[in-house]
Amino acid sequence: MKLRMTSALVGALAFATSAMAQDDTIKIGVLHSLSGTMAISETTLKDTMLMLIDEQNAKGGVLGKQLEAVVVDPASDWPLFAEKARELITVEGVDVMFGCWTSVSRKSVLPVIEELNGLLFYPVQYEGEESSKNVFYTGAAPNQQAIPATDYFLEELGVEKFALLGTDYVYPRTTNNILESYLKDKGIAEEDIFVNYTPFGHSDWSKIVSDVVALGADGKKVGVISTINGDANIGFYKELAAQGVSADDIPVVAFSVGEEELSGLDTSNLVGHLAAWNYFQSAESELNDEFISAWKARMGEDRVTNDPMEAHFIGFNMWVNAVEEAGTTDVDAVSAAMIGQEYPNLTGSTATMLPNHHLTKPVLIGEILEDGQFDIISETDPVPGDAWTDFLPESAVLKSDWADLGCGMYNTETETCVQMKSNY
Amino acid sequence: MTGTFLTRNPSVPIFLACLALFTLAVTMTSEAAGTGALSTSFLKTLGKTLCLCLVALAMDLVWGYTGILSLGHMAFFGIGGYMIGMWLMYARTEDIVTASMANSAIPPTEQEVVDAIGTQIFGVVGSAEFPPIWAFADSLWIQLALVVLVPGLLALVFGWLAFRSRVTGVYLSILTQAMTLALALYLFQNDSGLRGNNGLSGLQNIPGLTAVPQSQLSLWFFWASAVALGAGYLLCAWVVSGKFGSVIRGIRDDEARVRFLGYSVEGYKLFVFTLTAVIAGIAGALYYPQAGIINPAEIAPIASIYLAVWVAIGGRGRLYGAVIGAAFVSLLSTMFTGGQVPSVPLGFYTINWVDWWQVLLGLSFVLVTLFAPKGIGGLFDLISGRRAPDRHGADLGPDKGSFREQEAEQ
Amino acid sequence: MIRYLLAAFAALMLCAGVSAAQESQDGSAQVSPIQALLQEHAALIEKASRRTIEPAIAALRDSGLPEARAVLENWQAKELWQRKEDGLFFFAEEIDRSTYRLIEIDGGAPVGEYAKSDIDQLKPNSGVRGLIAAALVQFQLMDPNPAKRAEALDAIQRDPEPDHLPALLGALETETDPGIRAREERLVRLLTITYGDDEAARVEAINSFAGDLGVDARAALNPLLATRREAVAGDLPTDLNIARELKPGSEELSEAAAYSLLVDNDLAPARISAADRRAALETNIEGGRVGGVPVGQLDTEEARDRAYAALAQAGIVPPTATAADLAAALDAHVFFDRYLEPSTAITDAAEAALARMNLRVGLNQALDLTLDALSLASIYFLAAIGLAITFGVMGVINMAHGEFIMMGAYTGYVVQQIVPNYTVSILVALPLAFAVTFAAGVAMERLVIRWLYNRPLETLLATFGISIALQQLAKNIFGTQARPLTSPGWLDGALVLNDVVSISYIRIAIFVLALLFLGVFLFIMRRTRLGLEVRAVTQNPRMAASMGINPDRINMLTFGLGSGIAGIAGVAIGLYAKVTSELGSDYIVQSFMTVVVGGVGNIWGTLLGATMIGFLQKGIEWLNPSNTLAAQTYMIIFIIIFIQFRPRGIIALKGRAAGD
Predict the structure, then answer these.
(1) Does the keyword Lipid metabolism apply (chain A) (predicted)?
(2) Residue A309 maps to a domain
C-alpha cells in the first residue's frame, strides 16, 4: 500500500512540475511508438519530426518562438495511445501532435482529441471513411493509392482476375471491400476476385501462393493486390520467388511495402513487382535531394526515406505556415488556416489541403529494383483525397467539408450532418 | 478456528483502511473534486491500476491458494471488457443515429435505425450488419449480466472439461494458454463480429452522460474500481479463510491426499476457477471504459503471463501480495516505458529505459523466483517476525513458493 | 481506288513533312529513317500506355528497318533515351551516376556526353513491355541463339496473338533444338485451340490435351466454355449453343436474381427499392400526410407500403411490381446459360477434356496439399524436437525455447554478414547455431533451472522471464526490423512435378533436416552411453546416482542438446520465413501443442503430434481458403478438445515411467 501511495505521489509531482514549464516555446507532441511491434516503422517518423523541428528552429522558429518537441512512447499499445494523447494535451499543453501509424491507434486517440479539441497530423495511408475536425490526414486515402493502382492493373497490365491478399485488420478489410465493389463496377465478375486474410506475421505461404497460381487456369491474366502488412511480406515474397512467380506472369502490387520493408529482403527475385505510394525515394526533384541528404547526414548513409516521412514533411510545413498565417497556435484558428494551404511535395508537384482535411497527392507506381529501391514507371497529376469513398453505397452519399458545411460526415441526400464527432 | 473473521484476517481491515485513505487522497487532489494536482490522465491510470489489482487478486486465489497456474485469466478480463464495450458502443451510436434521423422528413422504422447503427459501428471494418452476438447489445442490464455470465460459463465449461480429465500442473497451464490464444485469434478475425483487430473503441464516452466532463467520469470510475477492489478483497479473504480455504490450500499442496480424504477436488477447483473468472470479468468491465478501447491484443497470452508475473513478484498465497505486485509492477512499467525515468549514461553506452525495461523486468522476475519466492509480500514477514517453521530440512509440501499460513503458525 | 491513292500520298507527304521539320530543327544533320519513324510516334512512345501504344509498336515491327529489332529490345530493357532539347531518341551508356553517353541508333556513333537531367529514360511499364515482347516474337523465333527463341516462346505464352500461329508453324519447320521444338509443338496446339479456323483441327487439338495438367492447357480450354446468362420470352431458342437451362428459384438462380435479369434486359418493370420508396414518400408529403397516412405513423414497413400504394393509385408515382407480377414474369420466360462459342462440337470436346483434366488436377491438388502438410509438420517437428527433449524427457518447461530458436536464426544472420558465400555461411551457421544455443542452454540450466527441479510451475515462470529478457535483448541488438537470412542458390526455386504439384527446395531441406534429427535423437537415446544415462536419470535420478551416474551432468547435457537442436531449427526456419525477435514466440505455443498432443516423453509421439497438427491445419485451410486465421483458431480448439479425451497425448507412457 505504502509503495503505491508513494509512486502515485511521485507521479503526481512529476506531472505537476512539468505542467509549469516555461511558456515562451511552442510545444509539439510526437506520438509515435518507440517500442513494441510498431517501433520499427514509427521510430523513423519520430526522427523525421525531430529533424523537421530542428530545421525550423534553425530558421527562427514559428511566431518568433522556438519549437519544443515533446516525445512520448505509446509502446504499440492502443489504449496507451489514448492515455498519452490526453497527457500531451492536458499535462504538457502541446499545441499540435504528429503521430499514430495504425488505424486502430488513430481510432483510439480520436475520442480524446475530439473531447479536448486537440490537433493531430496523421501521416500514413489509410482506409478512409473518416474525417475528423481535429485530424489532418496527410497520408493517402484509398482513391489516392488503391484505386489508381487497380486502374493501372486493369488498363496497363490487362489483369482480368484479382487476388486480394491482406493481413486481417481494418485497413486491408476496408480497402479490399472498396476494391471489390470498384472491380464489380468495372465489370469484373465476383468469382474472378479471390480474397484471403492472414494473421500478422504469417509465414507459411505455400498454399496461398499455389492457390493464386491456380487462378490462372481459366485463361485470364491474374494480378495480386497485396495489403499484407509488415514482416509477413518477407515470407510471402520468398514463397513467390521459390515458386518462380515472375512479375510478368503474376504481377503483385503492394500498398504497405516501401523502401524500409524491402531492406529486410534479398530483392533480386522480386524485380518487377510493384508498389503504389505517393512518394518514392527515387523521385527526382531538388527538394527531395535536399531532404534525402539532410536525412542521411543526420541518421547515416544507409538509411532510406519513405512515403509517411514525406507526409510528415508536408504536414509539418503546412502547419508552420498556417500558424504564421493565423498568428496564433489556437487549434480552431490554425484548423481554419490549414484549409487551402499549399506546399510543394517532394515529387515535384504541389500538395493542397482540402476542406475535407485530406491532401492532393500524385499517385506513383514503382517497380522493385535489385537494390531495394523503386523505379517509378507511372506518375499521375495530384489527386484530391476523398474521405468517403464513392464506391461503397453507404458512403457514396457522404461528404466532408469543414470550410463551408462545417461537418465531416454530411449526407448529401438528406442534406444533414450525420454527426459532428467521428466514428471510433 | 477461533475469533471473528476480521481478527483471523488482520490484513482485511488494514487493507480496507489503506484503500479508503488512498481513494480519499486521490479524490482530494483530482481535477474534478479537489485541487487538480492530479491530472485526469494519471487518475485514469490509477483507476485502471485498481482494476488490475482486482484481477491479480483473482489470479492469486486461483494460483497462490489453489495451485492452478491459469494462463487464461486475462482472457476472462477481456471478455468482461468486450461485454460492456458492446453496450457502450451500441448505446452511444444509437444516440447519434436517432439524433441525426430525427431531422429527416419521415420517421425512421426500427429496422432503419438498427441498420444505421450497424453501418456506423461496422463501417470501419467494411461491413454493415449486426452479427448475432450483438443480439442483446441494446440492453444495459443484459450486457451487465453477460459481464458475469460469459466469463463464468466459459470458465465452467473449460474447467469442467479440464479438471474432469485430470489435466493438472503445467499441462493445465499450457491448455489455458492455448484457450487464450484461440480466443485472441478468434477475436482478431473480422468474422468474429467484434470488429477484429480494431476492437471496440470510444468506450470512455458514456452514453447519456455526454455532458459530464471526463475528469468527473474518471473519478466516478476510480471510485467504482476502488469499491470493487475492496469488495473483491473481502470476498477473497472470506473464501480463503475457514474450512473452504484449508481444502483449497490442501489441493495446492497435495491434490492426491485431499482426494483420498474424500473431498471432491474437481468441484473445489471448478468453483474457484469459475469464481475467479467472474471476478476477472468484472474487473475488465471496469477497466476498459477507463482505457477507452479494447482489442484482441489485450487478450493475447502474454497478458495472462504478465498477470502471473505480478502475482509472483507481489507474493503468492497472500492477498495483499497480489495487490502490491500488480500495482507496483504496472505503475513501474508505466513509468519506465513512458520515458519518465532518466537514461543512464555509461560512457560507452547509454541505457535507455524504454529499451531496457523489459530486460530488467525479465531478469528481476528470474531473480525473484530463484531467491525470493515469497515476493515483495515476504518483506511483511520480516516486519511481523513471522518465520517458516523449522522442519529440519524436511519439506512442507511440493510448492515452496507459496506462503503456508496455517502450517507456519504451528 | 483514287481515294486510297490520295490517302497514301497524303501519308507520304506527312512523313516527309515530319522529317523535314526534324531536319530544319536539327540543322544540317540528316535524320535516319528509324529516328523519323520514332519521331512520328513520339507522343505515344513518351507516354507509353498499353491501351494506345499498339500503332507505334506495329509500325516499328512492320517497318522492315534493320534497327527496328534493336530499338524494340532496348526499349523493352528500359535502355532507350530521349534528349530533352530536341526530343530525339538514342541508346545510351552510363559513364557515372549522373552522366551518360548517348549513342546514335542508326550506326551506333557516339553523340556526346549528357547530364542525366538533360535526358529522359523511357520506362515502359510491364504491360507495354509484354506487347513489345509479343512484337519481337517474329524476330526472335528465327534467332540463331536458342535462349532468344525460348524468350520468344515465353512471350507467346504470356500474350498469345493470332499472328503467332503462322509464325510458330514457320519456326517449327527449321527448329533443331529438341526442347524448344517440343515447346513449340505444344504452343501450336494451344494456339490452334484458340485461334485455329478449322473446327476439326481445333477439336483434335483439344483432344490432344485430355488428361494434361498444365495451367496453360486449362487456360486455353476454359475460355471456350465461357457462358452468358440470358432470358427470353417463350421457349428455349434452338439456334444457340446452350449450356444449360435454369429454373428460377433453384440454387443457381434465385427468383430475385432471375427477376433482376429480366429487368436488366428490359423484359420486366423494375421493383422499387426501400430507399427509392422512402424518397418518393418524402417528396409527396402534403399537410403532414402521405397518401392519406399521417407522417408520424410512417415508421413501419406496412404503413409505408400503404402510403405508396395510395400514391400509385392516385397516379402520382409509378406502380411497383407486386409479388404476383413477379411470378407471372418469371413464368413467361426461360432462363439459360449459353456458350459464347457457337460450335457444339468444340464445346463438347472441351467439356470432355476438362472433365478428365479436373479429376487429375483434383488428385494432384490433394497430393500438393499433402506435401504442404508434410512440410508444415516437419517445421513444427523441428521446432518442437528440442522441446520434446527438455520437456518430454526432463519434464522441464522451457518457455525460452522459442528464444533459442530465435538465437539460432540470428546466429545464421550474423554468420552471413561475415561470410558472404551463402553455401559456406549456411554450413558454418548450422554447427555454430548449435554451439551458441547449446552454450546458452547449459548456462540457463546451471544458473536457473537446476534450482527449480520439482517446482515445474516456477520453472515455467522463470524461463518466461528469461524469454522476455532475451526477446528485448535481441530487439536492442538487431532492431525490430526483420533481418535477411538468404538461402544459397541451390535451395532457391521449387521441385516442380507438374503445374499443380510443386514444393520448394528449402522445404524439402527442412523435411530432410527434421528426419535427420529424428535419426540423431533415436541414435543418441538408444545407442549411446549418454542416452542410456539420460533414460536412467529420467526414470529414477536417485537410483541412477547410486549407480555412478552424475545426474547433474546428465541434466545439463540433455538440456544443452535440446537447446542446440532448437538453434539449428532456428536457422532452418529463418531461411524459409524471416528473422525477427518475435520469431520464437510465433512457434512456442505450437511447439508445446505438438509435444503435449503427441505425448510427453516419446519422440514418436512428437512426430505424430507434429504430423497431426500439420495435416489438420492444412485441412482446415483447404476447407476455408479465404481465412487462414480461422484455421489456426479451429486447430487450437480441436487440440483442446483432443486433450480432453487423451490427456496424456497420442502415445501415453505406461507404467512407472509415466509418474504423475
Answers:
(1) no
(2) yes
Residues A163 and A71 reside in one and the same domain: no
Encoded amino acid at C239, one letter:
D
Nearest CB to B40; choose among A34, A90, A394:
A90
The alpha carbon of residue C131 and the mean position of all alpha carbons in its chain are separated, in whole angstroms, by 24
C486 phi and psi angles, rounded to 5 deg: -100, 135
A308 inside domain = yes
Question: Are A149 and A248 within one domain?
Answer: yes
Cα separation of B110 and C301, whole Å? 9
Question: What is the Cα–Cα distance from B335 to B45, expressed in whole angstroms?
Answer: 11
Q: What distance in Å separates the CA atoms of residue C161 and residue A333, rounded to the nearest whole number?
A: 62
Higher pLDDT pick, C636 / B69:
B69
Q: How does pLDDT run across C573-626, given as a tens digit for each residue?
A: 888 877 888 888 878 878 888 888 888 778 888 999 999 989 988 888 888 776
Q: Does B184 touch chain A (CB under 8 A)?
A: no
* DSSP state for residue A65 in the 8-state scheme: B
Q: Are residues A371 and A256 in the same domain?
A: yes
Mutant choice from B69, B98, B109, B112 vs C, greatest count of C C-beta within 10 A? B109
Do A213 and A346 lie in one domain? The reply is: no
User: Looking at this protein, which amino acid is placed at residue C371?
Assistant: L
- Cα distance between residue C154 and residue C156, in whole Å: 5
Find the angle CA(B235)-CA(B237)-CA(B241) to the nearest 5 degrees: 120
Mean pLDDT computed over C261-277? 80
- Span between the terminal Cα atoms of chain A, in Å: 37
Neighbouring C-beta atoms of residue C24, cutoff 10 Å: 8
Cα dihedral angle (C515, C520, C525, C526), rounded to 10 degrees?
Answer: 90
Give the structural domain span for B270: 5-408
Do residues A87 and A197 both lie within one domain?
A: no
* Number of other residues whose CB lies within 10 A of the CB of residue B8: 13
Mean pLDDT of chain B: 85
Q: Are residues A212 and A120 located together in one domain of the fold? A: no
- The DSSP secondary-structure symbol of A399 reads E
Q: What is the 3-state secondary structure (H, E, C) of C207-232?
A: HHCCCCCCHHHHHHHHHHHCEEEEEE
Phi/psi region, residue C385 (left: phi>0; alpha: psi -120 to 50; beta: rest), is alpha
**Distance (Å, whole) CA B193 – CA B135:** 11
The per-residue pLDDT for B232 is 95
pLDDT attached to residue A2: 41
| Cα A400 to Cα A396: distance, rounded to the nearest angstrom | 11
| Cβ(C161)–Cβ(C131) below 8 Å | no
- State which residues of chain B have pLDDT below 70: 1-3, 124-127, 338-339, 385-410
Q: How many Cα atoms are found within 13 Å in the side-chain-facing hemisphere of A156?
A: 23
Domain total for chain B? 1
Query: Between A and B, how many residue pairs show a Cβ–Cβ distance under 8 A?
Result: 179
Q: How far apart are CA A128 and CA A143, in angstroms?
A: 9
Cell of A214: 491456380
Which helix (DSSP H) or strand (DSSP E) does residue C136 occupy? helix C126-140
Residue A90: which domain range? Answer: 25-141+285-362
CATH at residue A168: 3.40.50.2300
Task: Write out pLDDT tens, residues A163-202.
Answer: 999 888 888 888 898 899 999 999 898 889 998 888 877 8
* Residue A246 pLDDT: 86
Q: Which residues of C touch A201 (CB under 8 A)?
A: 580, 582, 586
The answer, yes or no, to whether residue C628 has pLDDT greater than 50, is: yes
Do A275 and A358 have their domain in common?
A: no
Q: Would you tell me which residues 304-333 of chain B have a C-beta closer than 8 angstroms to some C-beta of chain A?
A: 320, 323-324, 327-328, 331-332
Asked whether the beta carbons of A404 and A417 are under 8 A apart, the reply is no
Integer Cα distance of C427 and C412 in angstroms: 10
Residue A367's contacts (CB-CB under 8 Å, 6 or more residues apart) are A247, A271, A272, A273, A274, A374, A375, A377, C125, C126
Residues A54 and A107 in one domain: yes
